[in-house]
Write a structure and sequence with these properties.
Helix content is about 45%, strand content about 15%. By secondary structure, the chain is of the alpha/beta class. Bound molecules: adenosine monophosphate (AMP) and zinc ion (ZN). Zinc ion binds next to loops.
């Protein structure tokens, strides 16, 4: 390993050198989606950051083992399945599928493990049994609660102040049977019509927090290196994970906690009522590019809020065009004479500055500035006719190296055949069709609709205009 990695650890709130438990190996757990609806681009920002983390670790010499859970049993999935009148598995399966498809569309690598909560109930029960046996948890009416008062360290991650919370306040017996309002549920007694598993406390289901503690320790060990999620998970989810895991094992749970900031749309929180909550298919249907979205995600540091606007996506597409144009010019440049020493130096500088940027708490601004400085130097070399023997593959290989982290610089890798690049043409055909309809030339509009259908494009006419998607 050449470059020392420094990361901002939420636990302690400071930058510190990253030290993995096993030298050269990074074990990561990321809280995955609750699969009760389609993920939005905010969720995808978080998963794109985790992809950058994973690829950066590899670039800096680590072998990576990563697990991302799929929360397929909780209040929301149960309610959704109930309303739809289907089983939990039938309800969550399409959302898991579209989630994995969205990751693939954004070139987010598949992690090594995707545990589903419903497939790991026994280790959750074992963890709860240990907590009850050690006196950290108590049983009440078939449910089990973690007693925060038994954990003097509670609040270390989030700065949550136990004394300010309503210490010892009793709650009405009908409110979940908790002894103290601050306690949280580990096991929920079954309610009529809900999916349930047998346990020593009767039939029921695990609480959300215990799912992550049990699955992460089962797959990665009782102590592992990195745990991440969006900032909203710091409290109570991750605080509770620490409380459960460390009380049960007596060992540190996670060495480094990383939390990424949220995505906003036009400066506002995404919400259904504001109509600004976009999914990836929503953006693709507007003819926007997944590649530009990935670039936009990468270009903003993970500890800063990312303000999504359509202009910022245009800006991202523009930055990528600069790389594409340079490659195109290089492809058509003539290799003459000896290799250019300036270009070799520029390539070395890119590798060095890029790695140094990543190692500095994943400072992509520095890493991307190094890429664009290199693009500029190659452009100048082409203009000055300095491309010598072997220079073309040197440039291409250097870009390929940094692109193993960025996953966005190679336009060819994003050309799916069905192609994003035909979006503009599709939009043009839709406009032609709508013009034809306005003229009441239905023969023409039907012909265009047929042509689009043959290309796998489905149209939907809405009061806001025509939307399209790939079938
Ligand atoms: P959830 O399915 O709600 O548990 O969210 C999955 C992941 O997306 C978690 O890591 C959240 O912290 C993250 N997340 C939720 N909303 C946003 C947002 N607006 N921007 C970025 N990440 C988000
Ligand atoms: Zn979690």
């Amino acid at each position: 390993m050449t470059t020392e990695l420094v990361l901002f650890n939420t636990l302690g709130r400071k930058l510190e050198p990253f030290r993995s438990q096993v030298p050269g190996e990074a074990r990561i757990y990321t809280c995955g989606p609750t699969v009760y609806n389609e993920v939005h681009i905010g969720n995808l920002r978080t998963f794109a950051f985790q992809d950058l983390l994973r690829r950066s670790l590899r670039h800096l010499g680590y072998r990576v083992v990563q697990a991302m859970n799929l929360t397929d049993v909780d209040d929301k999935t149960i309610q959704g399945a109930h309303q739809a009148g289907v089983s939990l598995a039938e309800y969550t399966e399409p959302f898991i599928r579209t989630f994995l498809r969205d990751l693939e569309t954004l070139h987010v690598e598949r992690v090594e493990h995707f545990p589903k909560a419903t497939e790991h109930i026994p280790p959750m029960i074992r963890l709860i049994e240990t907590l009850v046996a050690k006196g950290y948890a108590y049983v009440s009416d078939g449910s089990v609660f973690f007693s925060i008062a038994k954990d003097p360290d509670y609040g270390r991650l989030s700065g949550f102040d136990l004394d300010q919370a309503r210490r010892g306040e009793r709650v009405a017996a009908d409110e979940y049977g908790k002894e103290d309002v601050r306690d949280f549920v580990l096991w929920k007694a079954v309610k009529p019509g809900e999916p349930a598993w047998d346990s020593p406390w009767g039939s029921g289901r695990p609480g959300w927090h215990v799912e992550c503690s049990a699955m992460s320790m089962e797959i990665l060990g009782e102590t592992f290196d990195l745990h991440c999620g969006g900032v909203d998970l710091i409290f109570p989810h991750h605080e509770n994970e620490i409380a459960q895991s460390e009380s049960a094992t007596g060992k540190p749970f996670v060495r480094t906690w990383l939390h990424s900031e949220h995505l906003l749309v036009d400066g506002q929180k995404m919400s259904k009522s504001l109509g600004n909550q976009y999914t990836l298919p929503d953006l693709l249907a507007r003819g926007l590019s997944a590649r530009a979205l990935r670039y936009l995600f990468l270009s903003v540091h993970y500890r800063q809020k990312l303000n999504f606007t359509f202009e910022s996506l245009d800006g991202a597409a523009g930055a990528l065009r600069r790389v594409d144009e340079m490659r195109f010019r290089l492809l058509h440049a003539e290799e003459k004479g000896a290799p250019d020493p300036h270009l070799a130096e520029a390539a070395d500088r890119l590798r060095r500055d890029f790695a140094a940027g990543l190692a500095d708490d994943l400072n992509v601004a520095v890493a991307l500035a190094a890429v664009f400085a290199f693009v500029k130097e190659v452009n100048v070399a082409i203009e000055e006719g300095r491309i010598g023997q072997g220079d073309k593959p040197r440039v291409v290989d250097t870009l390929a190296d940094v692109d193993r982290v960025l996953g966005v610089l190679d336009a060819m890798a994003w050309d799916t055949g069905a192609g994003e690049d035909d979006s503009a043409e599709i939009e043009r055909l839709i406009k032609e069709r709508n013009d034809a309809r306005q003229r009441r030339d239905f023969a023409a509009s039907d012909r265009i609709r047929g042509e689009l259908a043959a290309r796998g494009i489905a149209l939907e006419d809405t009061p806001q205009g025509t939307r399209w998607k790939r079938k």
